[in-house]
Design brief:
By secondary structure, the protein is an alpha/beta fold. The protein has a single domain, classed as TIM Barrel (Alpha-Beta Barrel). The strands form three sheets. The protein has an eight-stranded parallel β-barrel with strand order 1-2-3-4-5-7-10-11, surrounded by five helices. It has a three-stranded mixed sheet with strand order 6-8-9. Helix 8 packs antiparallel against helix 9, helix 9 packs across helix 12 and helix 16 runs parallel beside helix 18. The longest helix has 28 residues. The radius of gyration is 21 Å and the shape is globular. Bound molecules: ligand GBH. Ligand GBH binds next to loops.
Length: 481
């Protein structure tokens, strides 16, 4: 079991979750700033106005990465810092852009390879108000293309680009359940607007086209000289049939991945949506125009994989409701024979299962013909960690996060087997997250950090065991040439 000597490993974050300074240097509001103001949407009623204060602490964050031995760092850009109103005819905010140019220079100076995500959920609020944001099939992809071009031009030194982080979340959580900004859902007790039978499929489609447009710009105008690579990051959980003896459960376990991952990956690799989705959704799932299809098909230089957890999948019978997004099935933590998928964490949806990670890497590699894969996120919360974090006498226990450290050991080893024993082409692994941060609707109560952030004490950072063990873990696996 081993990894190649040029394997990229490091940590990941996202702009809205760490930066704070939401009004500094001309930044415009994003849909998440607006969402945080709606009572009841964020646990504890908190916002991200300060978060980890990383906008003002770039030097600290880089010093931390260096100390941990991180070879790369994945972070995202705040679109509304760069173009406060977001659109292609709106002014560029040079100060916002300069901040990221400097940050990339400083990372490279420290010997750390940047991986930049263009869109990690924080759409400029103005675009949502102006034309419905991600719902707009013509305007949104063009504005995203323009934003991408501005950034590619300004930061030629970055060689690794991710267009969208987890468009599944933007679509389903933003427009079906309404759990994330902008909070659309058919449930009128939660939102005055939304159609959970259709909007998520439209948003997903528009993200794909916007991704395709940005990739075309990169390949036509920048890649020939800059020589970088570009791809999309998709989330997806591992699946096992609830009853392995029941062919309908076996099929449902596969269909679950198609609805979560192939929804985006099939158009990118094959130019069409999965048959299972078309069959269930009919014309509620948009159809690619010829122009859209040619933008989307073949648009990944690599596959960005975010992965955390797994489920047992049980098929459902009968006609699924029109707002179903899973594929007419249910996800369970226990199998028919009573096996448990993994231990509880602070996140209701997350239970560690490293074998499922290896199996999903294999599933993706087989379906998409062994693409280069970068694991752009993987990590875990820990049950009740925030209680420890708020009690100074539990500090030692807090920093000794063996549960998370074990998670990484198991997941990284499982990945190394997928590479060295199964022939999968995983090129990098970025732990989520470099530090505790704003965990979206869960506020600050759920921590994913390998580094403790003390929100009661000026956002000071202290690496936990999971952070400091990482270098040894990877050194042990990487072949010395
Ligand atoms: C990542 O998503 C995000 O990219 C990152 O910003 C975040 O901090 C990190 O996870 C930790 O949560 O509400 O039942 O539909 C992880 C993938 C997929 C996990 C959707 C939560 C919601 C389950 N996410 N899932 S549900």
């Amino acid at each position: 079991m081993s990894l190649p000597a040029d394997f990229q490993w490091g940590f990941a974050t996202a702009a809205f979750q760490i930066e704070g300074a939401t009004e500094a240097d001309g930044r415009g509001p994003s849909i998440w700033d607006t969402f945080c103001k709606i009572p009841g949407k964020i646990a504890g009623g908190v916002d991200a106005n300060t978060a980890c204060d990383s906008y003002n602490r770039g030097a600290d964050d880089i010093a931390l990465l260096k100390r941990l031995g991180s070879k790369c760092y994945r972070f995202s850009l705040s679109w509304s810092r760069i173009i406060p109103l977001g659109g292609r005819n709106d002014p560029v905010n040079q100060k916002g852009l300069d901040h990221y140019i400097q940050f990339v220079d400083d990372l490279l100076e420290a010997g750390i390879e940047p991986f930049i995500t263009l869109y990690h959920w924080d759409l400029p609020d103005e675009l949502d108000k102006r034309y419905g944001g991600l719902l707009n099939r013509t305007e949104f992809p063009l504005d995203f293309e323009n934003y991408a071009r501005v950034v590619f031009k300004a930061i030629p030194k970055c060689k690794n680009w991710i267009t969208f982080n987890e468009p599944w979340c933007s679509s389903v959580l933003g427009y079906n359940s309404g759990y994330f900004a902008p909070g659309h859902t058919s449930d009128r007790t939660k939102s005055p607007v939304g159609d959970s039978t259709r909007e998520q499929w439209i948003v997903g489609h528009n993200c794909l086209v916007a991704h395709g447009r940005a990739v075309k710009v990169y390949r036509d105008e920048f890649k020939p000289t800059d020589k970088g690579q570009i791809g999309i990051t998709l989330n997806g959980d591992g699946t096992y049939p609830w009853d392995p003896e029941d062919p309908a459960d076996v099929e449902a376990a596969n269909r679950k991945i198609e609805f979560a991952i192939s929804w985006f990956a099939d158009p990118i690799y094959f130019g069409k949506y999965p048959d299972s989705m078309r069959k269930q959704l009919g014309d509620r799932l948009p159809t690619f125009t010829e122009e859209e299809r040619s933008l989307v098909q073949g648009s990944n230089d690599f596959y960005g994989m975010n992965h955390y957890t797994a489920n047992y999948v049980k098929h459902k019978t009968g006609t699924p409701p029109e707002d179903d997004i899973l594929g007419n099935l249910e996800c369970l933590f226990y199998s028919k024979s009573g096996e448990c998928i993994g231990e509880e964490t602070q996140s209701f949806w997350l239970r560690p299962n490293a074998q499922a990670f290896r199996d999903l890497i294999n599933w993706l590699s087989k379906r998409y013909d062994y693409p280069d894969i970068y694991v752009t996120e993987s990590g875990t919360s820990i049950k009740d960690e925030d209680k420890l974090a708020n009690d100074p006498k539990d500090k030692e226990k807090l920093l000794n996060d063996t549960f998370r450290a074990d998670y990484f050991k198991n997941y990284v080893n499982a990945m190394a087997k997928a590479v060295s024993e199964d022939g999968c082409k995983v090129k990098g692994y970025m732990a989520w997250s470099l530090m505790d941060n704003f965990e979206w609707a869960e506020g600050y109560e759920t921590r994913f950090g390998c580094t403790f952030v003390d929100y009661n004490n000026g956002q000071t950072r202290e690496p936990k065991l999971s952070a400091t063990q990482m270098k040894g873990l990877f050194d042990g696996l990487m072949k010395k040439n």
